[in-house]
Amino acid sequence: ARAVLDRARPILEAHGTPARKAAFYRIWTMQQLVRNRLRATEEDIAALRAALAAAEQAGEEKDIGYATYFVGWALWLGGDLAGATPELARALALAERIGEKHLRSFALLTRALTALRGHDTERVRALLPRALAVARSTADGSRTAGSLAVAAWLAWQDGRTDEVLRLAAEIDQDELSTISSTAKYRWVYLFPVLA
Question: I need a surface site. Which of 64, 87, 144, 176 has the fewest CB within 10 A?
């Protein structure tokens, strides 16, 4: 897929509309991230910023919201928690303003994961109920499992090992074999189980 996208890139750059460029840069970067096992590089973040700039030029708020989210998500993947936090907050604010539930779900979960990665248990505790409620309200199994994984981490921090095991068993009932599923959150709940 990346080879096909690479061949199309010069044509898109010369003739693509801002909306098409925004979508292209996001898809191109996602292929790179999948190939690199979700390890974000500066090149990936630059491409996602180009997608955001193109979305802003096109002016469609929903696309701007998702493009902003993906910049924050890639920064989180790369370990830049300070950079990720305002991007994710901006995406969440836009999602709430325009009523985009799936973007809210993405942004809330990734904000909780950002707080988790920073070992900020109180921030995780504050974000988790909203993240879980929105994921469940959209019937988004991937985000629900991700939120439950964060809940397992929080239970571990609180010393509630029985709850860790209960949540892990609930998550493990889902099919976690593809990159587009909850597979990318498996580490969040497996480490507390192993501990």
Answer: 176
Give the whole-angstrom CA distance, residue 114 versus residue 193. 20
User: How many CB atoms are located within 10 Å of the residue 187 CB?
Assistant: 10
Q: What is the pLDDT of residues 155-170, one digit of tens each?
A: 999 999 999 999 988 8
| pTM strictly above 0.85 | yes
